[in-house]
Amino acid sequence: MQPTAAAEYTDVTLATFSLTSIAIIVVIGLPIALVGGYWLGVTGRRRLMAKGQQVESHLGETTQGAFLALLGLLLAFTFGNALSISQSMKAAATDEAAAIGTAFLRADYLADPGRTELKTAIFDYANTRIVPAHQQIDTREKFDTWLEASLIAQSRLWPATLEATKEPTPPPIQAFVASAVNDALDAHLYRVATQAVPIAPFSQMVVLIATITAVFLLANRTGMLGRSLTWRTFAFSMLTGLVLYMVADIRRGYQGFIRVEQSELFATIFEMEQALRAE
Predict the structure, then answer these.
(1) Cα separation, 162 vs 172, whole angstroms
(2) Rounded CA gap, 105 and 123, in Å?
(3) For residues 51 and 235, is the Cβ–Cβ distance under 8 A?
(4) pLDDT at site 164
(5) What is the 3-state secondary structure (H, E, C) of 45-57?
(6) Minimal CA–CA distance to 195: which of 66, 54, 10, 47?
(7) What digits encode the pLDDT tens for the residues 245-270?
(8) Measuring CA to CA, how many Å separate 109 from each of 38, 184, 185?
(9) More confident call, 116 vs 250
(10) What distance in Å separates the CA atoms of residue 249 and residue 126, rounded to the nearest whole number?
């Protein structure tokens, strides 16, 4: 197997926390923070009552409000960022499908046998750009495997282009076809760039900590005031956790429940396959 540039993509940063890890935090971590905060609040209230001190009704109100406002700001920011990433992934996949389809069509201006070989190489390359529905790029190893297969197919494109556009192909036709193939190669770089997560791992950790802390303080104040821990508090905790999970899911276009649509690339591959069969 010929060497590729896959090893040079080490700076492409994938998500720090897997969706499974986030789900565990949501399902287990938040309820623990809720119950733990309430228990500490009840214990603190009993201690104060035993000393003959009264618990003021506004105790912790300012701190709780500040944390909830901060959590809302962080969730809004991360949701906007995740939505922007998802849209960028969709645009990159659409642009790549268009570039590959254009290169395939322009190859028709060439003569055989170079024309068929180039069109076949473009078709094979397009198939490697698909991320199957059953496959999730959620680890570095899976990303490298997908990228390696794509780069191997990509390495055949330019030699096939040079072979198909050699003399006596007129120079205008050479440039016409070569520019389309070059655009398809460039589209690969833009699509790989969208795989990176621009939010630093530290920032992701901050959002998780803020969520757990806000839930903890909410339950703690409830216990300090002698109120019962109702289903509404649990509902708020779980809804906040689901929003956190949804934000993480949206950011990862090729894993989870909310995945980047690849219908344009599927349609392009289908059209190329039909064209090759007709030749």
Answers:
(1) 14
(2) 11
(3) no
(4) 92
(5) HHHHHHCCCCCCC
(6) 10
(7) 888 888 877 777 888 888 899 999 99
(8) 73, 17, 19
(9) 116
(10) 26
Q: Helices 140-154 and 171-193: crossing angle, nearest 10°? A: 180
Sign of CA dihedral 62, 64, 66, 68: negative
The band of 1, judged by pLDDT with boundaries at 50, 70 and 90, is very low
- Rounded to an integer, what distance in angstroms lies between the CA atom of residue 27 and that of residue 32? 9
- What is the enclosing helix (H) or strand (E) of 105? helix 61-106
**Dihedral of the CA atoms 90, 92, 97, 100 (nearest 10)?**
-170
Contact 122, 161 (CB under 8 A): no
Question: Measuring CA to CA, which residue among 31, 59, 70 is closest to residue 212?
Answer: 31
Res. 66: pLDDT tops 70: yes
Q: For residues 31 and 203, what is the distance between their CA atoms, to the nearest angstrom?
A: 23
Tokens of 147: 């990228």
DSSP-based three-state secondary structure for 44: helix
pTM for the whole thing? 0.81
